[in-house]
Sequence to fold (597 residues):
Amino acid sequence: MICRLSMRYILVFSLLALIVGAACTPRRDIGNTLRVAQREKIKTLDPAHANDFFSGTAVRRTYEGLYQYHYLKRPYEVVPNIAAAMPAISADGKTYTIRLKQDVYFQDDACFPEGKGRRVVAKDFIFSWMRLADPKTASEVWWALDGRIVGLNEWREKLKQGDANSGTSHYDLPVEGLKAIDDFTLEVRLTREDPLFIHMLTMPATTVLAREAAEKYGQDLTTRSVGTGPFVLERFEQNQIIWTRHPKYRLETYPSEGEAGDREAGLLADAGKPIPFVDRIIDDVISEDQPAWLNFQQNNHDYLVKIPKDNAKNILTDDFKPTREVSERGMKLLSSPGVEFSYIAFNQTDPVVGGPKRKFLRQAMSLAYDEAPTIGMFYLGLGKKAESMIPPGVFGYDSEYKNKYREFNVAKAQELLAKNGFPEGKGLPELTYDLRSDPTARQVAEYFVRSMAKIGIRIKLNQVSWPELNSRIAKKQAQVWGGIVWVYDYPDPENGLQLLYGPREAPGSNKTSYKNPAYDVLFEKFIRTRDDKERLALIKRMRSIYEEDVPWIVAVHRNENRLTHSWLHNLKVHAFEYNSDKYLRVDAEARKRVLER
Fold:
């Protein structure tokens, strides 16, 4: 089900006075190039391991799936990408017949005979999804197909038990629910009627990868790519990734329709024109807020994903309106409600903070954490307090619901701490809080440390890179962690609820490794239920369970913000489309005039 989400754009911005500082990308004319500040190091370019926003963005530069989300329409609408049309679905909702476009080619690469990329066929998707299911791949995003396709889980279990041949030959064993009718017709049989399956086919994890590339490069796919998309990887380095236009990319065009207001906002000026518009993309990896801000001010990047909070006073007035200095310039801030939530998590396998025996400890910590000030301090006031994992705009969100352990109540927290055997924190070992190397994440963590100190809980911080943090969480090595945001992959509550499903424990999507049999039973019933009234009732029952167990402290539903220069066109905040950059157009001459001042 596709839910309605308000996407009102706030046009606020303008260029501030230049601040002298080092620039990542030189201040010179670089032609028809899009320059972006990626706010974290890219963990991988392998679709099977792209379980975070930053990796997903990089993967979708070059890899494509059968379907994607319409760039402009709201409510969000799934449309064909490599598929020639929407699937033909059987009367019982279990069989999908998908026709492929016949002009889709893999990029030229040494893995193919004579280095020439071949045409994509139905078997390529079968291979890609089997690779996602392969235990040897150890995909963190296997949950997207887990239990959905007839025979795929059984194939996976045979490999786990060693019942298949070693090497890659097991990919030649058939999966009952996956069949190539011919080169350009794929038949998928599902285990149940599943309206959400189409959304799984928009995700980076289910994009198409050539078997030749997987066999030739193996683990090296972390830093190289062989896709079908509009951009080809030119260079991958720790702090910079460069992409160039795919010279043999098929004819795809910019959308010709959108929602009310898009035409007036200039978002339909390029309707029907071939994409992509830019010849090159330079991704500069800049984790620190201030360098990212300085580079943007000095015109070294065309848009900025995260607005540094320490500069908010120069940008917005106290009532969140643009300052006069800002409003007279040519920049824009695009802001819309994010389909996401931030949280602080507890490793449920950890003997100090995890499991049923430490439930009162987690409840106490949740009650002692007042996130209300953080919205103004760390998110520019562009967000709202979270009571559950379901954000505004998604089915099941309840604006009246109040989580009883998300109220700020130090006295009650002290009572619960004593109930768990740690009066005033006595006897409780110092806890370790892992976080990524980001200034805002650090400040949020320091605020959390101060909050816990009020009830006698001592916490030390362990700041690591984004890839290392992911690794520590996947290996169940992190005890408590924060600075994490779950961005929904598709507009349905299942995407949030599955984060606590026991069988998907780390390294799967259930990063806390939370296990509650009652919750699991309800979730399994939920994914098979189509009636909205019944789904809502199940959501409330699951909510009451995880509210009591506190596997994490839900904090904030942030807004999605993009700060742009006047020479960048067609940017519209999109909650689910990783590859928005293929729609962007740079007025290189206008940018050149600014750079030459």
The longest helix spans residues 532-549.
